[in-house]
Amino acid sequence: MFHQTTLPNGLQILGETNSSALSVALGFFVRTGARDEVAGESGVSHFLEHMVFKGTERRDAIQVNRDFDKIGADNNAFTSEEMTCYHAAVLPEYVPQALDILADILRPSLRENDFQTEKKVIKDEIARYEVRPDWSVYDQSRKRFFGDHPLGQSILGTRESIDALAREQMLDYFRRRYAAGNIVAVAAGNFEWDAFVNLVREHCGEWNGAKAAMPRQKAEAPRRPGLHTIPREKLNQEYVMMWAPAPPADSPLRYAAHVLTSIIGDYTGSRLYWALVDPGLADSADISYIDADGAGAFLLSFSCQPESAAQNLATVRRVLDEVQTKGVTDDELRVARTRLAAREVRGNERTHRRMLAVGRDWLYLNQYRTLDDELAAVDAVDQKAIRDLLARYPLRDLMTVALGPLDRLEA
Amino acid sequence: MFHQTTLPNGLQILGETNSSALSVALGFFVRTGARDEVAGESGVSHFLEHMVFKGTERRDAIQVNRDFDKIGADNNAFTSEEMTCYHAAVLPEYVPQALDILADILRPSLRENDFQTEKKVIKDEIARYEVRPDWSVYDQSRKRFFGDHPLGQSILGTRESIDALAREQMLDYFRRRYAAGNIVAVAAGNFEWDAFVNLVREHCGEWNGAKAAMPRQKAEAPRRPGLHTIPREKLNQEYVMMWAPAPPADSPLRYAAHVLTSIIGDYTGSRLYWALVDPGLADSADISYIDADGAGAFLLSFSCQPESAAQNLATVRRVLDEVQTKGVTDDELRVARTRLAAREVRGNERTHRRMLAVGRDWLYLNQYRTLDDELAAVDAVDQKAIRDLLARYPLRDLMTVALGPLDRLEA
User: Fold this and answer.
1) Strand, coil or helix: what is A16?
2) Is residue A410 very low, low, confident or very high in pLDDT (cuts 50, 70, 90)?
3) Does B20 contact A22 at a Cβ distance shorter than 8 Å?
4) Residues of B in contact with A352 (CB under 8 A)
């Protein structure tokens, strides 16, 4: 059962109660991420997420850790281009303690000492990512595809941008973006709604309520055909990523996009799987649908021996062209709908996943959707929906970036 | 609700029905693994697990894949030292199809052609594992600790043992170990028990019913103090593993073993975490309890810069010695019990995990245990249980193996 309310300071509270669940998942969603960073702030969203665990007036970093541990919480956080989420799953009796810790850390001290220490940790993290070719090709191709669009901004930032960041800038970002009106508290599982609202009011009622300052620009991403190679002599695999515009997160075409990408490039049983992975021509080959605020993208990627790259690229283009011109079969549609519905159901058996789904739907759609709503929407994807999707967002002229030993890639 | 029956050919059927679950998890547990292999068969259990997906009289390998995909099944298999399990999680309406596929593949054709092709795949898998230092130190230290004990036998085998294996040997192993009397079929989730039993009877009622030929030797593992180094010049980390005997899987001391290892070396909030991981002295440091048929082991492992290895080993020994001589605090006991209970509850929200738990308890304990039984047993671990455990299985004289750049490791 769904519940919703808003505190006077603008903080929104959502709950999905389920008395047969065994646990409760709690999350604080902050509507902020890399795309909301202004000049000179690159990487601050993710850096701040780390700093949130470094302590408050009431707790140092060790105490945060110990207090979560004491109640057996499974807690973590993540930063995306568009949101930052702090979450914990606990047994029903520990909701008050878990909320106390989460609400406390969301008003962090951001001490200068900790700030400088954590800078090193963040730069080490960036260094670890930079040597991963799968991440490099993603990061560089994404930037090239989105260009000046705010979705092109990097979550991690660069070692230089992190080095240059001052604590004052983080404080300023925090005041702007972590205001109560920009935060949604979500609970899913076996808990009492009224008691939960009282706890949130008690812990968060005094939070600064200013609205987020800058609304987001909602432009879609442009189409950017082209083929680019990034030579990396020492690698022995070629990593290829291909991008094209797709529906934004609130588009009615989004379900068709999920079904179509599953047909073309699910990690199992898809056209790319049978064309490239099963015969051993590529180590991996898949396509996913990235749904964001006001913009979306299809992202196709494969990796293989360099000598097979040109031939595999030709195969990928042929697969996409066949879908674009001839569509998909009724059988493929049925299988993909069943596969997505089954995954959705199995995933949502966990309260953690329900909490994430409820929070995400609220941030992106400003609505509550049940699991059954989602299943019905997936089930309703028919040939017409696929045709409409392909007409509006054709699988043509993908921007292609290849990173690996090749200087040149010609299909 | 729990149900159990046995077919005339000896195949056992278990079910835990839960009408509020959204899916059904099915599993076939075969009581066989690396420890049951005889001379010349090393690796055959795992190799056979692969071959099971290569086709039957009714389906080739591609059809197996497509048929699972058609019903949106999340299916897989694993081989351990002591069991081989084939499983699939599906939406309730697809139980008949899922059972049809699982039962069919468990009577595989084991075609000579597929056997030779898969040999290459297995040898590639072994080669990929061999270059991983974390796996090498595990594999080599486990062999050294168990010695001639059957639990010392390798799951993957060696490239040589796989090369030397003939299809006839696999057929012979299959006849011996995959008899109906050695197999347990398990379902957990939202399904009808009677209908499930009828399906299993229909598909498996004619399976060869001979009992497994060789019962297992139930000796415990010996204590083998000693420090061994395996020099690997090219590595830049030192990987250390330490072994000591622990309670067998059916011992009443097993819950105390889980709680104690969580206090000493959980990946978070444990003594080793605070002594080595949090201050950055080691990349990882943990201890786990391995519970097997008739024997158990404590396995402590850490990895770090080679120059810190000796000092870290001294710290580990001090931590173990303190626990052995002074025990643990009441607060540590409470935190560890809460942590383990919370994980157990959260894990068991998924039907897949319930199915695994029900099957495993049956194989190891020959009994059904509810989630509440498990939680009560964890909650009952007190200071006396920890003392009894440490008296019977002291944390002293662990066998230590270090793999990495060091020639010599002196604490």
Assistant:
1) strand
2) confident
3) no
4) 346
CA distance linking residue A241 with residue A230, whole number of Å:
11
The CA distance from A184 to A10, in Å, is: 9
For residue B77, give the amino acid letter: A
Contacts of B278 in chain A (CB under 8 A): 62
- In angstroms, the CA B102 to CA B75 distance is 9
When the pLDDT of each residue in chain A is averaged and rounded to a whole number, the result is 95
pLDDT for the residue B18: 96
Q: Report chain B's terminal Cα–Cα distance, integer Å.
A: 54
Amino acid B338 reads: T
Residue B212 has pLDDT above 60, yes or no: no
CB spacing of B269 vs A91 below 8 angstroms: no
What is the structure's pLDDT at A358? 98
Q: How far apart are CA B383 and CA A379, in angstroms?
A: 55
CA distance A63 to A56: 10
Residue A368 confidence (pLDDT): 97
Q: Supply the pLDDT for residue A229.
A: 97
C-alpha B137/C-alpha B301 separation (Å) is: 10
Q: Which of B221, B158, B170 is nearest to B45 (CA)?
A: B170
- Return the amino acid letter for A391: A
d(CA A46, CA A154): 10
Contact A399, A139 (CB under 8 A): no
Given an 8 Å threshold on Cβ–Cβ distance, is B269 in contact with A339?
no
Q: How far apart are CA B266 and CA B314, in angstroms?
A: 19
CA distance A402 to B63: 34
Helices (H), A266-350: 271-272, 306-326, 330-347
pLDDT score at A211: 65
Assembly ipTM: 0.85
DSSP state string for A344-383 = HHHHTTSHHHHHHHHHHHHHHHSS---HHHHHHHHHT--H
**Euclidean distance between the first and the last CA atom of chain A, given in angstroms as a whole number:** 53
DSSP secondary structure letters along A318-332: HHHHHHHHH---HHH
DSSP 3-state assignment of B324? helix
* Buried residues in B121-152 as b, exposed as e (16+ CB within 10 A): ebbeebeeeeeebeebbbbebbebbbeebbbb
Strands (E) in B91-217, as ranges, are 183-189
d(CA A316, CA B153): 44
The set of residues, in sequence order, having a beta carbon less than 8 Å from that of A49 and lying 6+ positions away, is A77, A78, A79, A84, A86
Residues 6+ apart with CB under 8 A from B183: B11, B12, B28, B29, B30, B31, B106, B204, B207
Give the A-side interface with B, CB within 8 Å: 20-23, 62, 65-66, 69-74, 89-91, 94, 268-269, 278, 335, 338-343, 345-346, 348-352, 371
Looking at the complex, report in whole angstroms how far the Cα of residue A218 sits from the nearest Cα belonging to chain B. 35
Q: Which helix (H) or strand (E) holds B388?
A: helix B383-392
Contact: B268, A69; criterion CB under 8 Å: yes
pLDDT tens, A129-176?
Answer: 999 999 999 999 999 999 999 999 999 999 999 999 999 999 999 999
Residue with tokens 């939070």: A207
Instruction: Return d(Cα B62, Cα A355) in angstroms, integer.
Output: 37
Note the pTM of the prediction, 2 decimals. Answer: 0.91
